[in-house]
Structures are given as structure tokens and as C-alpha cells.
Amino acid sequence: MISFKGKPSADHLVEHLESFIQDTLARCTQCGECFKACPMTEYGPGLKEARPQEAVAGILDWLKGVPNHATSLDWLKVCTQSSVCIKACPENINVMKMMRTAQISALGSLGAQPALKSRDEKDFFRKINAFSATQLTTEEIEKWQR
Ligand code: SF4
Known about the structure:
This protein is 55% helix and 0% strand. By secondary structure, the protein is mostly helical. The site of iron/sulfur cluster has 14 residues, from helix 2 and helix 6.
């Protein structure tokens, strides 16, 4: 849970992501259940034949800031944030957030060499609001929007 002291800032978000990344890296067993449950894997090149454990290992690489350009990028590109993966995870990891954080890393926003292009997206901020509504408490959202 985020606990903001004073005015929320980009530092708070980075701190929150770093904490989420460390927790995910510590708890993910790379069982691959999230990949198996994902409804989008049939739409990415090579994902049908991919090994679930390998796909997840690539996502964890992005969380570590280690560029991974094969299956993981194909998976990140087709992810629509369906959230089906969250229910599939036996470790109660928020896999949708894990995927979103890996996308942020692959876009180069966490220090890794960019491997994904950001979209020219007119609904970008509306989507951020929708995403934050699924991740933060009402109190946290109010603090961010102040
Ligand atoms: S289902 Fe959970 S524990 Fe298994 S690979 Fe996915 S994130 Fe890791």
C-alpha cells in the first residue's frame, strides 16, 4: 500500500514501482500460470509455441532492467490488461501490474534501453486514470489528483 508523506511526486511513483518490483521478483516462482491463462497469447507472433516459464522469465528481466527482446516483448505488445492473469497466479501477484511495469521498463522509463515505442495515444491519460482506479485506493487517488 502506498503511503504518501507530503505532496505526491514522481519520486513517490518510482519508490512504489521499485517496491512492487522487489516484491514481485521475490515471490514469483515462474510457474507460468499467468501466461497459460492469458487470452492474448494466440495473437502475438511466436507466443503460441512459447514456453510459459520462458515468457515469464523475460518479463522478470524487464523488471530487473535487463533488456529481453524475444517472447517477452511479443507478450507485452499484445497485453490488453484483461486482468485474467491476476486470478491465475497462485502467489497472489498482481500480474496485470507486473505486465504494465514491464511495459514501462521496455519503454525505457526505468533506465533500460527502450525496446517498445510509446503510442501516439489520444486517450492516454484517460487510460492512466482507469488503470490507477484498479490499483490504488480512493484515498490514494484523491491525493494524486490534488
Ligand atoms: S502465475 Fe504468478 S507466480 Fe506464476 S509465473 Fe505468473 S506471476 Fe509468477
